[in-house]
Write a structure and sequence with these properties.
Belongs to the UPF0047 family. This is Secondary thiamine-phosphate synthase enzyme YjbQ. The chain has 139 residues and is an alpha+beta fold. It has one domain: Jelly Rolls (Sandwich), CATH 2.60.120. The chain has three helices and eight strands, in the order ββαββααββββ. The strands form two sheets. A five-stranded antiparallel beta sheet has the order 1-8-3-5-6, with no helix packed on it. A three-stranded antiparallel beta sheet has the order 2-7-4. Strand 5 and strand 6 form a beta hairpin. The model has no long low-confidence stretch (mean pLDDT 97).
Length: 139
């Protein structure tokens, strides 16, 4: 199989942690035909990130937001302030989590754990549409 690469635009979301697994899968119908492979997901932004985390209880996503907001406060001693009080903390949070995930593909599906989902970590109050580059390879 050849490499497949697509960019998808996610709808704007408020600050928080948002499951996007289905949106990623919808963009790659070819994945269902793979026996084995890898999916790389890359977020093209410096104030949003990606993580694999809880896909069932929304309380986990609420608690993650609370933890990050408490530990990386907007009223910190930031130098970079031109884009608003939530911008520099968003950069720090994104650096802590990272912009990418690599997920194994097995038998036409992502080989995720039972409770794992692809989570967009939106760290701005009004971050706008977020773009992900999806790169799939397998056979």
């Amino acid at each position: 199989m050849a490499w497949i690469q697509r960019e998808i635009a996610l709808r704007p979301r408020p600050r928080g942690f948002h499951l996007v697994t289905e949106e990623v899968l919808d963009a790659l119908p070819e994945l269902r035909g793979l026996e084995v492979g890898l999916l790389h997901v890359f977020c093209r932004h410096t104030s949003a990130a990606l993580t694999l985390n809880e896909n069932a209880s929304p309380d986990v996503r609420v608690d993650l937001r609370r933890w990050f907001d408490d530990h990386v406060p907007e009223d910190g001693p930031w130098t970079h302030t031109l884009e608003g009080p939530d911008d520099m903390p968003a950069h720090v949070k994104s650096s802590l989590l990272g912009p990418e995930l690599t997920i194994p593909v097995r038998d036409g599906a992502l080989a995720l754990g039972t409770w794992q989902g692809i989570t967009l970590c939106e760290h701005r109050d009004h971050g706008g549409s977020r773009h992900l580059v999806l790169t799939l390879h397998g056979e």
